[in-house]
């Protein structure tokens, strides 16, 4: 029996999620699946005026939602998590169709949404402020956290839904409406998520105002409307450093708040005492998983000279044997690159590395499906020096490997790049581990020991320093970015003592 056409599978999966929007709008924006390079839908794009109207609707929704008690808001997110569980297979498939992820990684991304929802439900009863000792008698000082306002969320193609949910689940319990501009490459997953949330909203009932969560489909015009609007209190943007350099200053100019989660150039260090088998597996997933298209992908590896011949040949063997294939039809570990330009970027980086004396293993294009699909063998590149393409993020499965002899020098190289997202050390030496995690160690927002750079859990704060943008999303106390803090001092005495002993007797 011939396999169903991809547009039919897409339409069926979208329908299962509850999407009613037309997927065949004449002259609309084409959505191309990297799995085959085929167009699977054409969508209506929102105009800037429609984006403005959506922002106004969000703003009206804020006035109602901020007054709903937080634990009640948590109940909406609890219902959403229930609906997500029901739609896990379909949403996972949409991630595979639009982003080309393996089935396991597609489902994993949906699981990440479920996890952050569960976290947020608990959080809805824990939006704690401090009680602070005051220097004045008969006074009490405390802080209160209030809803912030409309939250605009911009997401990238490589994680079509989880980063939205890290933001949306927290924002909703914090009392903020959400507006979502997904990547133009992955708008269908966004519509599917919204449909699943709509099911939860229908169950939740009238307390949730209209327009509490909206999706805006389109390109820069739609993004700019959100970024430039004074009504959008917080912009949380995931994407390239180039995008962040545009968005950050624009939002700052209007004194808006920003969470930026931008590029990384994540590295691992393999020390002499490492558990080599464990390191091998962690590096393989970190560097080849998601076809190297995670912001947390391991892109650089520093290996101590004494173990270089132990681990690098084993890694090369893993690279040679890794399965690359269609994620909808095979259980292959590596799916396609997102598009032709990603492939060209990879070729250019490998050429540059070769010109600098690098030895490349892998990187060949694979003939899988039509010519419009870009599958590649992941590449491992032995580099004589830490330079050239090694210093920047190429969003493709390339791992640059270098040798080191001195740990401090390795650490220095580790930190000598623009990105500051994720990092890993493989060691069983307590001193090396603690130095790596110390103030003079890894300068990244995520520093791991004996696990890879990718695949963070939602419980921790996610994000990084330097060109990664400095934002933190997801767990820990990231929720505070979605609320405003008021410091309250209450005088219950009959006197009016001034702070700092100041007198002002009239
Ligand atoms: C991203 O690539 O933008 O840690 C996010 C990870 C995932 C999130 C990646 N939890 O790899």
Automatic annotation (TrEMBL):
Aldehyde dehydrogenase domain segment(s): 29-485
Active site: 261
The protein's name in its UniProt record: aldehyde dehydrogenase (NAD(+))
Matching Pfam families: Aldedh (PF00171)
Family annotation (InterPro entries): Ald_DH/histidinol_DH, Ald_DH_C, Ald_DH_CS_GLU, Ald_DH_N, Aldehyde_DH_dom, ALDH7A1-like
Superkingdom as given in the UniProt entry: Bacteria
EC number: 1.2.1.3
Entry keyword set: NAD, Oxidoreductase
Family: Belongs to the aldehyde dehydrogenase family.
Record note on quaternary structure: Homotetramer.
Any one GO molecular function term: aldehyde dehydrogenase (NAD+) activity
Parts forming coiled coils: none
Matches recorded under Gene3D superfamilies: Aldehyde Dehydrogenase, Chain A, domain 1, Aldehyde Dehydrogenase, Chain A, domain 2
């Amino acid at each position: 029996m011939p396999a169903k056409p991809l547009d039919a599978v897409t339409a069926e999966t979208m329908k299962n999620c509850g999407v009613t929007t037309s997927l065949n709008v004449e002259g609309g924006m084409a959505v191309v699946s990297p799995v085959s390079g085929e167009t699977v839908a054409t969508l209506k794009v929102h105009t800037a005026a429609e984006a403005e109207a959506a922002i106004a609707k969000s703003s009206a929704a804020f006035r109602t939602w901020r007054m709903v008690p937080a634990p009640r808001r948590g109940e909406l997110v609890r219902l959403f998590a229930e609906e997500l569980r029901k739609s896990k297979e379909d949403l996972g498939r949409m991630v595979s169709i639009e982003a080309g992820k393996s089935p396991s990684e597609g489902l994993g991304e949906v699981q990440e949404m479920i996890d952050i929802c569960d976290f947020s439900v608990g959080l809805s009863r824990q939006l704690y402020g401090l009680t602070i000792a005051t220097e004045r008698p008969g006074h009490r000082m405390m802080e209160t956290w209030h809803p912030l306002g409309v939250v605009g969320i911009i997401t990238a193609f490589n994680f079509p839904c989880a980063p939205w949910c890290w933001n949306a689940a927290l924002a909703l319990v914090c009392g903020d409406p959400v507006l979502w501009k997904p990547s133009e490459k992955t708008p269908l997953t966004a519509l599917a998520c919204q449909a699943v949330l709509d099911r939860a909203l229908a169950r939740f009932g009238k307390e949730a105002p209209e327009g509490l969560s909206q999706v805006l489909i389109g390109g820069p015009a739609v993004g700019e409307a959100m970024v430039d609007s004074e009504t959008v209190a917080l912009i949380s943007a995931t994407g390239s450093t180039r995008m962040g350099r545009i968005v950050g200053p624009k939002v700052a100019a209007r004194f808006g708040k920003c969470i930026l989660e931008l590029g990384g150039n994540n590295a691992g260090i393999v020390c002499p005492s490492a558990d080599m088998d464990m390191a091998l597996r962690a590096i393989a997933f970190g560097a080849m998983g998601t076809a190297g298209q995670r912001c947390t992908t391991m892109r650089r590896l520093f290996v101590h000279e004494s173990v270089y011949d132990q681990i690098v040949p084993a890694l090369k063997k893993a690279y040679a044997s890794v399965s690359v294939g269609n994620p909808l039809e095979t259980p292959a570990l590596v799916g396609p690159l997102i598009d032709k330009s990603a492939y060209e970027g990879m070729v250019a980086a490998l050429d540059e590395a070769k010109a600098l004396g690098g030895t490349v293993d892998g990187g060949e294009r694979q003939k899988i499906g039509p010519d419009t699909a870009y599958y590649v063998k992941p590449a491992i590149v032995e580099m004589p020096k830490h330079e050239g393409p090694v210093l920047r993020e190429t969003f493709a499965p390339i791992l640059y490997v270098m040798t080191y002899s001195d740990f401090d020098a390795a650490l220095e190289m580790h930190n000598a790049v623009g990105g500051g997202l994720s990092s890993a050390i493989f060691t069983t030496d307590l001193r090396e581990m603690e130095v790596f995690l110390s103030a003079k160690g890894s300068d990244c927002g995520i520093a791991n020991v004996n696990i890879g750079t990718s695949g963070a859990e939602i419980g921790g704060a996610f994000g990084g320093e330097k060109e990664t943008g400095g934002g933190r999303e997801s767990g820990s106390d990231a929720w505070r970015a979605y609320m405003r803090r008021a410091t309250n001092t209450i005088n219950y005495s009959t006197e009016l003592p001034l702070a700092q002993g100041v007198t002002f007797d009239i």
